[in-house]
């Protein structure tokens, strides 16, 4: 009997010791891991467009006009870049002169829209390119490469709007700095300049380009400017 109680006491002691030694230590709360943005959750940095090179401008002009015009040599600032039609793509505005023996070809079946922003568009009285014209071409950007893209051919060819001191004016800044005046509703950047002694702005709205003279502006009128897609140009009707 004494041996039985001794054996039972030994067994109980062993169980208690084993149970105590097998218990888990109290969990210690760890500091949270600092958040690290994954490449997918970090918006990529968009580099500003590179300044245009003359060779790139010449390439864009030849792409659209196929040798029918040249960059006008008499203007110091003969090309500008900006988002002139407000589609977030960079466009090219360049001062041109027609090649004399290409005039008839330019007027035959143009692949651009010829407009005079200072007069209402009249489809019954189509405009023509003349040999002494000083023209402003606005080549709208397309795709990731904007106006440099090989498919960027949507172009407005504008008469009677090339002046001096041509510069790009941000559309939002233009509205902000002109509070209290009657203003047009530009869809993008404007081109400011001095034209025939008056300070004014060339701007895009309602599918065409118009002229704004702060001294004479009374409001916008409905225009019938033809619209064509972002890529290739559509012939005017």
Describe the structure.
The protein has a domain at 54-212. It is built from 4 helices and 10 strands. It has helices spanning 2-21, 54-65, 103-108, 171-177; strands at residues 69-71, 79-82, 91-98, 113-115, 135-139, 155-159, 164-169, 190-195, 198-205, 208-212. A hairpin with an 8-residue loop joins β2 and β3.
List the SSEs and their pairings.
Blueprint: H1 2-21, H2 54-65, E1 69-71, E2 79-82, E3 91-98, H3 103-108, E4 113-115, E5 135-139, E6 155-159, E7 164-169, H4 171-177, E8 190-195, E9 198-205, E10 208-212
Parallel strand pairs: 4-6
Antiparallel strand pairs: 1-3, 2-3, 3-5, 5-6, 7-8, 8-9, 9-10
**What would the average pLDDT be, to the nearest integer?**
81
What does the radius of gyration come to?
Answer: 35 Å
Shape estimate: globular
Largest sheet geometry: 6 strands, mixed
What's the quick description here?
With 237 residues, the chain is of the alpha+beta class. It has helices at residues 2-21, 54-65, 103-108, 171-177; strands spanning 69-71, 79-82, 91-98, 113-115, 135-139, 155-159, 164-169, 190-195, 198-205, 208-212.
Give a quick set of tags describing it.
237 residues, 10 strands, six-stranded mixed sheet, alpha+beta
């Amino acid at each position: 009997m004494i041996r039985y109680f001794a054996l039972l006491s030994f067994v109980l002691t062993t169980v208690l010791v084993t149970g105590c030694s097998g218990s888990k230590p109290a969990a210690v709360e760890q500091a949270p891991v600092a958040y690290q943005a994954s490449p997918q959750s970090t918006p990529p940095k968009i580099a500003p467009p590179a300044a245009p090179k003359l060779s790139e401008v010449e390439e864009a002009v030849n792409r659209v006009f196929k040798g029918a015009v040249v960059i006008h040599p008499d203007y110091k600032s003969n090309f500008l870049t900006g988002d002139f039609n407000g589609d977030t793509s960079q466009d090219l505005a360049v001062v041109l002169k027609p090649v004399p023996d290409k005039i008839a070809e330019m007027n035959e079946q143009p692949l651009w829209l010829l407009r005079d922003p200072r007069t209402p568009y009249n489809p019954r009285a189509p405009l023509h390119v003349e040999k002494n014209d000083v023209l402003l071409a606005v080549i709208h950007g397309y795709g990731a490469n904007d106006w440099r893209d090989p498919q960027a051919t949507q172009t407005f060819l504008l008469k009677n709007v090339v002046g001096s001191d041509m510069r790009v004016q941000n559309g939002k800044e233009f509205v902000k700095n002109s509070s209290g005046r009657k203003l047009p509703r530009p869809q993008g950047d404007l081109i400011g300049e001095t034209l025939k002694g008056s300070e004014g702005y060339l701007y895009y709205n309602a599918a065409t380009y118009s002229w704004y003279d702060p001294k004479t502006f009374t409001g916008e009128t409905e225009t019938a400017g033809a619209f064509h897609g972002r890529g290739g140009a559509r012939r005017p009707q």
